[in-house]
Amino acid sequence: MKVDLFNFELPQRFIADRPASPRDSARLLDLTGEAFADRVVRDLPGLLQPGDLLIGNNTKVIPARLDGRRGEVKIEATLHMRTADNEWLVFAKPGKRLKAGSLIDFADDFFAEVVEKREGGDIRLRFNCGGEQLFQCLEKYGRMPLPPYIQRKRDDELTASDHENYQTVFAKEEGAVAAPTAGLHFTNELFQALEKRGVGFETVTLHVGAGTFLPVKVDDTEDHQMHAEWGTITQETVDKINAARLAGGRVVAIGTTSLRLLESASIAPGIIEPFTGETDIFITPGYQFKMVDLLLTNFHLPCSTLFMLVSAFAGLGKMHSAYKHAKQEGYRFYSYGDACLLKRMDIEC
Q: I need a labelling partner for 309 at 20 to 30 A (CA). Which of 71, 221, 236, 254 fits?
């Protein structure tokens, strides 16, 4: 499909640079009925049915943006995928002057060697430490990898607020360099209301990479190559999903990352298996969804792979109309913005 089909106008004023407070006070555009309905996230329990199962991504964002030097040259490195205990693929600026064997110093006790330069701009770094020690160094020297459309004037402001805000309340497994942003709307109070309603909650893990921010640079979706991300779904979670579906419940993905992993692990309609490994699934209109019935997601960038995904899920025309409505009503877009609830276009609610 032509990428231009997924374009729309979005003035800067609609882009949220601060989250809603409290989190579940964010607005929610309900697209599950015949007409659009303007709600708030804390209305979610009333929009779901007893027996439905929410699936969230429990990945935890690490401070993956590092400022270093190669001699006198300043280098900014953004980690986006772990390849070994002490190795990561990174995006580096400026990256053209880096060569295999180059050393980048991030602190007196923290540095990395360029091991490989790959096509597409990826650079593989080998750090002087690994495992938990590497994560400790990232906590000490790194910055939260906010999307480029969220601007902060001072690093101390970013550290003070975004270190907490750019993390879900159910984050557990370290490794993401971007937040699964639909999950940012959840609070402990909202989970209590969902439990009271009889809605279940389980987690999967997909370590979101910085590739999620990369623009689509081709004219046709068939020519776009997704960056791979690592994920896992346990047998226990698979059993909970199967039990919910057997009892007539619906699978509700919290965010596109949860959806992508659930679909990667599904081998046929309604059939899912445990999964551990990389996925580069790219979902565009025409894709046949196998597992997810409802999707809670934020409002996405024009021509992005995420807008392509929601268009595949709910219909391209419907999503263009929904985004037009959202702009008319002053909804807030992107990572810290508001949310919408979508139903798969081939099912009834």
A: 236
Q: Which domain holds residue 262?
A: 3-61+167-343
Q: Give yes or no for residue 34 having a pLDDT over 70.
A: yes
Question: Does residue 47 fall inside a structural domain?
Answer: yes
Mean pLDDT of 129-153: 86
Enumerate residues 6+ apart whose C-beta is below 8 A from 237.
Answer: 55, 202, 203, 204
Q: What pairs with residue 56 in β-bridges?
A: 203
Question: What single DSSP character describes residue 15?
Answer: B
Three-class DSSP category at 17? coil
Band (349; pLDDT cuts 50, 70, 90):
very low
103: enclosing H helix or E strand: strand 103-107
pLDDT over 70 (residue 340): yes
Per-residue buried b or exposed e for 138-175, using 16+ beta carbons within 10 Å of the residue's own CB: beebbbbbbbeebeeeeeeebeeebeebbbbebbebeb
Asked whether residue 269 falls in the same domain as residue 308, the answer is yes
One domain for residues 91 and 47:
no
Longest dimension (CA), the chain: 63
pLDDT-derived band at 121 (thresholds 50, 70, 90) equals confident
CATH number, domain at 11? 3.40.1780.10
> Tokens standing for 274?
């445990």
**Residue 161 included in any domain:** no
Please state, in angstroms and as integers, the Cα–Cα distance from residue 248 to each residue in 49, 186, 223, 240, 241, following that order.
Answer: 10, 25, 39, 13, 11
pLDDT surpasses 80 at 120: no
Shared domain check, 137 and 259: no
Number of domains in the chain: 2
Is residue 153, in this structure, part of any structural domain at all? no
pTM: 0.91
Are 198 and 79 within one domain?
no
